[in-house]
Amino acid sequence: MKASAAPAAKPAKPESHLAMVRRARRINRELAEVYPYAHPELDFRNPFELLVATVLSAQTTDLRVNQTTPALFAAYPTPEDMAAAVPEKLEEIIRPTGFFRAKARSLMGLSAALRDDFGGEVPGRLADLVKLPGVGRKTANVVLGNAFGVPGITVDTHFGRLVRRWKWTEQEDPEKVEAEIAAIFPKSEWTMLSHRVVFHGRRICHSRKPACGACPIAPLCPSYGEGETDPEKAKKLLKYEMGGYPGQRLSPPPDYPGIPAPPLGAG
Fold it and tell me: Which residues are CB-neighbours of 13 under 8 A, at least 6 positions away?
């Protein structure tokens, strides 16, 4: 008698929305344990400095911005100073961040708007911030969440990439991503969630070669295996403090366990 063929494996049951939400919240809790020190990786001392640094961070690294802003804020410490800058001098200072002419126009424009429309102070409302030259929703949420304590989700390239990799959303448009993720988490978690996800994307879950074998949330990740799964090889892919290297801030928070970044031109 001919042996019957083994039954075909049943296809995996699609994850329900409720199961996805539970998994997403568990990932957030586990990331909070991995990165209890997660923070904005731009150096700043006040809302104006954070706003300027965030505008400068487009198309460059936070490290390069942090290496550039000490000279920038020494020359132009207030919106009034920056609004009155000689464009060529401002451009030369911010040249290392790239796209320096367009960024200089944005910085002078937003500084003039702060001077003329807001008494030289950065406003603490989204509707006001997005009216400033060079300030979009992402920049506004960074400033609100980290300078004013107003919860916000910051959808940068790392955040969007990871939440799609984790199947929290299929959206590509940043505003739609923001709306869908905001519906998963309580508002009180939005700002820190943003930091944790970005930290994880920069340190472990890289774009081209994620360090899957060294990832603390691998059991919860539907995309596990896209990167290096061998633990020893994966460890070599870790970046910043996870890999024993300097971070991005020259002046990191006191609880940061890594090495401060070097100033411009050092090392």
Answer: none
166-185 per-position pLDDT tens digit: 999 999 999 999 999 999 99
Q: How far is CA 183 from the centre of its chain?
A: 19
| Distance separating alpha carbons of residues 140 and 130, to the nearest angstrom | 6
Cross-strand bridge partners of residue 259: 246
51-108 pLDDT, tens digit per residue, is: 999 999 999 999 999 999 999 999 999 999 999 999 999 999 999 999 999 999 999 9
Amino acid at 51: L
- How far apart CA 119 and CA 102 sit, in angstroms, is 25
Please identify which of the residues 138, 176, 233, 236 carries the catalytic annotation.
Answer: 138
Query: Catalytic pick from 10, 62, 156, 187?
Result: 156
Q: How far is CA 141 from the centre of its chain?
A: 11
Closest to 21 measured CA to CA, from 226, 212, 163: 163
Q: Of 193, 154, 180, nearest to 26 (Cα)? A: 193
43 is catalytic: no
pLDDT above 60: residue 11: no
Write down the pTM of the prediction. Answer: 0.92
